[in-house]
Amino acid sequence: MGLKILEILQSYLGHMIKVFPQLIRGAGVTIQITSLSVFVGIIIGLFMGLGKLSKKAIFRIPSVMYVDFIRGTPLFVQILIVYFGIPGLVSQITQSSFRLEPLVAAVVVCGMNSGAYVAEIVRAGIKSIERGQMEAARSLGMNERQAMRYIILPQAFKRIVPPLGNEFVALLKDTSILATIGVSELTRHGQLYASVTYATFPTYMGVALVYLAMTLTISRFVAWTERRLGVSDRGD
Amino acid sequence: MIVVTDLHKKFGNLHVLKGITNRVKTQEVVCVIGPSGSGKSTFLRCLNLLEVPTSGEVIIDGKSVTDPQNDINKIREEVGMVFQRFNLFPHMTALENITLAPMKVRGLNKEEAETRAMELLKKVGLTDKANVYPDSLSGGQQQRVAIARALAMKPKIMLFDEPTSALDPEMVGEVLAVMKDLAREGMTMVVVTHEMGFAREVGDRVLFMDEGLIVEEGTPEEVFNSPKHERTKNFLSKIL
Ligand SMILES: Nc1ncnc2c1ncn2[C@@H]1O[C@H](COP(=O)(O)OP(=O)(O)O)[C@@H](O)[C@H]1O
Ligand SMILES: [Mg+2]
Questions:
Q1: B88 contacts A154? CB cut-off 8 A
Q2: What is the pLDDT of residues A218-233, one digit of tens each?
Q3: Is the Cβ atom of B38 under 6 angstroms away from ligand 1?
């Protein structure tokens, strides 16, 4: 009995070691997709976040709709729409076949998805700055842009970075769902190995551990950045 | 210098200012008193359009604040404001707080702005705090930096909204002293305050506001010593 368990453990360890290089390759793709998506997400989020705060309805209403749609629907369904739905639609309209590269679809979906969450982070960060700051700036003759640039955004930035780090971690984990459309990221590499060897337990545990290593590293880094920013943020 | 005609302000259904008419002459120091919620802050904030009046007109130095044709930022450059809660910029040192607007709005270069800022810090007695962040300053010191920040724009008018009411009692004096200096130098000032000593010493005129109207006005002696209206008497008896 004890011998049997030892045998199993030994074979599991063997699989983990064997699958490890593939997982690392997959993790590289995961990091690439996540980084690109966060970059796209930050740009979308900055505009949508400011849009949500705009007094002008033409900026505000589209931003609100965008954020509501993305946050109110599952990422998986968004992937299905972008990877299958949109090419289908385009093919029908143009009467010719149209396909999206899985990797392109991945960055589009994850970037747009993360954009909506970043928009909320940006909006909340700006809103958290006391109203008196804007008033003091305006009373000194600064226009709205100057007040935003010199007074509001620098203060909001420090409050935006930590939740942005959490968003990065959340997105990194969410990219595992991209395995379903065949993007060769971390989870997909695990799936491929497991489907050949049937060693599901050690493979997926290995996959989990690699995710864990990445998310822990990022959150430690975020905490460190937070402390660094905290040093120059003298109260409020 | 300031001409206010039939100023009304509503927040939704709440009618906060119900027709304020008054003039403030150049170099005059006007103190505004009145119970909490009577519309004193709103009145002051309408003068530099931090609140947009519902109707009526405000003319500052010949330019209508309420006329959308006029550039409100230009007018605000001439009107300094000091807030109850200081509202210093926490991510900047005292010096940076003071130099920012002269550089970005008036177009001064860094040396000019810093020279002016150091003069002002000297004036408010805080030369040694130039490179300190607001959270390391006491309330009284923060408010003096805030006054210096407003003065750095070389405004023609200064508005003060209860500048000492968020301060510990032992710090009120140092802020009032700076304001008294300013009044003596001939600054035109509108000050919402309950510091009777200050009003008597440097105030030319006192306005008593209640429920969105100026109920009574006169010299500090007239208003404090022989108030005519029941509401003024009532209010004074509560705060004295
Ligand atoms: N931005 C606002 N929105 C709604 N109501 C406001 C706003 N600002 C002030 N008020 C209301 O207007 C009234 C007068 O306020 P305020 O001018 O601050 O009075 P005071 O400074 O004399 O205490 C109060 O009832 C207050 O609640
Ligand atoms: Mg008030």
A1: no
A2: 999 988 888 887 644 4
A3: yes
Query: What are the sequence ranges of the domains in chain A?
Result: 13-231
Q: Which of B9, B33, B41, when mutated, tests ligand 1's pocket best, judged by the most ligand atoms within 8 Å of its CB?
A: B41
Average pLDDT over residues A91-98: 91
Q: Spelled out in words, what is the top-level CATH class assigned to the domain A13-231?
A: mainly alpha
The three-state secondary structure class of B192 is strand
Ligand 1 atom closest to the Cα of residue B209 is: 22
Determine the pLDDT at residue A236.
Answer: 41
> Residue A235 is nearest to which of B73, B90, B149, comparing CB atoms?
B90
Contact B157, B60 (CB under 8 A): yes
Express each pLDDT in A3-27 by its tens digit: 899 999 999 999 999 999 999 999 9
Does this model's pTM top 0.95? no
Contact B101 A140 (CB under 8 A): yes
Amino acid at A37: S
3-class DSSP assignment, residue B190: strand
A128–B contact, CB cutoff 8 A: no
Q: Which residues contact A229 (CB under 8 A, 6 or more apart)?
A: A158, A161
Ligand 1 pocket, B89 CB below 6 A? no
What is the residue with the minimal CA distance to atom 18 of ligand 1? B41
What does the pLDDT look like over B195-221, one tens digit per residue? Answer: 989 999 999 999 999 999 999 999 999
Contacts of A70 (CB under 8 A, 6+ apart): A78, A112, A113, A115, A116, A117
